[in-house]
Design brief:
Largest sheet: 8 strands, mixed
Radius of gyration: 28 Å
CATH class of the largest domain: Alpha Beta
Strand order of the largest sheet: 1-5-6-11-10-9-7-8
CATH architecture of the largest domain: 2-Layer Sandwich
Number of helices: 17
Strand content: 15-25%
CATH topology of the largest domain: BirA Bifunctional Protein, domain 2
Length: 425
Amino acid sequence: MSDDDKSVLRAPRGMRDFYPDEMAVQNAIFSAWQSAACRHGFLQYDACVVESLDLLKRKAGEEIEKQIYSFQDKSGRDLALRPEMTPTLARMIAAKQGALSFPLKWFAIAQCFRYERTTRGRKREHYQWNLDIVDEQSVSAEAEVIATAVSALSMLGIGSDDAAIHINSRALLADLLDGSGIPRKIHGAVFLALDKLGKLTDAEVSASLESAGLSKENVEAAFRIMRLETLDEARKLLGEETESYRELLSLFSMLSHYKIDAMARFDISVVRGLGYYTGIVFEAFDKAKRLRAIFGGGRYDNLLQDLGGKPMSGVGLGFGDVVIAELLSASGRLNGISPTRDLALGYMEEAQRPASMAAAEQFRRQGRSVDLALRNQKAKAFFSWANKSGFVEAAFIGPEEVLAGEVRVKTLEDRTERSVALPGC
RNA sequence: GCGGGCGUAGCUCAGUUGGUUAGAGCGUCAGGUUGUGGUCCUGAAUGUCGCGGGUUCGAAUCCCGUCGCUCGCCCCA
């Protein structure tokens, strides 16, 4: 086979196929997302995967723009595969802002595309669970969104031993920086430095801060802020209880009422890259912090007005399928997940096919999932196949069964059998 | 965009300082006589050794290029 022949057998770079075993895992994740969202009163929506490039560009920086899968349709329209769901959500809400009742709680499971180098935990295509609460000012929105995500994690077997939610507030950071006399213009540089703190040496970080325009005193102040470990320390540095501080305090209190405060912690280093976050931001990580963020999100204030809608404050959360699948796999929680195979039905001779079909139909009316053999086969071959395919039960119909009007249904795991009457033909 | 590692059977990999028809395990399929699976035994199929070029009497092995995969960095969902 030549190179060309082989490459046509592979999915394009960064894109994924889901064979049945992998699809079962994917379904388990989707179903956890879906039922957690429903339990928390979110309504599902969906939208087209293709968006107008113009809409996506409004929100994206130059760097992100290069990573958008864009193309022209045959009439020359500039279109793109959506890199995230939020612009679409904002568009849908802005278009019907007068007709919708707020605050609204919506969720979507959206396939998103990003043209970039693939790495561990990051493909060019992924599914992202999006939770949004729009037009609610209070931190109850943050609490609800976080609690919903935690609920999904717990359905997948991930608890406080495995993951932690790191919470911060951009507003609090801004207050702290203001209080230290660091000009607004260069707050962004400090946000960037926070992200680098573990990766670069302190000397390198302070050098980059200085080159961004911070004075020596500013850099020292920035380091005092970046070293904060608790909310209480932050309050002391602020010298007063700012609104941003009280919001965080209130959020932690709400999380404790949901009994998920064990998973939550204040973490000054969480800033999130996305430009549109304005208030509280959060990210969930595996305990060992070996993987990328499991989910992340925060409060945005300007999203709707940027699209020409009425200003509304919202909270959003994005939870991708790739990292959680890696975490589940690393912690051995995928072992039990495989395609559901209920009852296998086989028959010895072509003559038993009609009776087998009638029996299959009877079981199916009872709501069972029945895989009826497509051709007759030997008993040995049939049971061997049924066993390795992971069926719960198997039944084999030969002349004797048809004559007796009865078939033995065998439970494969313990080899016990029970008799079931065949329907009359 | 920058840097590291790796491409041999469906999968995991051996393959000695270049030397005959390239191997193992797992998996798959078929058999071990009469209609019941996980063990065991026997047998079988499958590779232009990623691709192209070069060096050589001779290349899976050495060199160059290329494509692909992968892991970091940058950035970010």
